[in-house]
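Run: sequence + 6-O-phosphono-beta-D-fructofuranose -> complex structure.
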Amino acid sequence: MQIGVLCSGGDSPGMNACLRAIVRTALNEGHEIVGFMDGYQGILDRDFYVGSAGAPRAVLRTVSGLVKKGGTVLNSSRCPEFATPEGTQKAAEILDELGVDALIPIGGNGTLTGAHELGKYWKCPIIGCPGTIDNDLNGTDFTIGFKTAVQTAVEAIDKLRDTASSHHRMFLVELMGRHCGYITLFAAIAAGCEAACIPEAPFDIPSIVEKLKLMKNRGKRSIIMAVAEGYHDGVMVLQEKLKEAGCPFPTRVVVLGHLLRGGDPCPDDRILATQCGSLAVKAILKGETDKMAGVTNNIPTLVPLTEAIDGHREVPRDLVELLECVS
Ligand code: F6P
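>> structure
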């Protein structure tokens, strides 16, 4: 069997580790992996990973060192053409023409939505792997890259705390996560932020300003608020509103942006990526399709793609309350 792999959407630390596990598991079972470059675009362009061999289509065998490497050697993209019914159907026809027998797309919500749509036109097995920093998919406790992103955010916020204390300042630190507050909430707890502004738990500006005044009166020298990129009107508007409401701290905004997607994966992400990649291959060999390979309660688990991408994944309420309690 020749199984195609691609990484699509925003890259995330651990995508390479996932690819490595897919290749190693497939080889062990006597099957071959080919990589498409730049996500679904690579199918439409018939653009295969060629490695150093320079052949038009290299079968992936040498994946040494990939467990620790950030980014993705297959590159990634968002592909508007594939997202149309015509584009999806065209991709299905090209996969048949190329003789690919199954597909493992690694990516987030958009990627797995595309994978489900592709299954309506292509009759071969498709198993997705959850590669996104956002942690916004159902059916897996964490997504590949989330924990590394949180670690990067915490390292950055720790540094900002130093300068915030030196200058008696407040920093509003914007963190990625699309519509989801997971990264922001976890980073806020781990970095000891005074507040997290997340879409799932909007706060009242006058009451937060009152709280800030109390903190200032008690001698607090610095404030850090972690703000999710999906928070209401965004971090700049939030800064203005706080100022208008009488915020007692001079405030600066720092947008960490794509910094969170870079860097080598942390051990947890390497392990998760390895579990998901290996399960994806085994699932295909068992004839499964239209599912995502995730890990729930430490157990590698398959979940229907429709469930993985369904609705907004809520953040745990107890962690929202925990942050309020300790900040
Ligand atoms: O989905 C991953 C992510 O990094 C989101 O957190 C963010 O909203 C988005 O991708 C940014 O996308 P782009 O790299 O296309 O600007």
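>> summary
DSSP finds eleven helices and ten strands in the chain. The chain has two domains: 2-134+265-308, 146-262.
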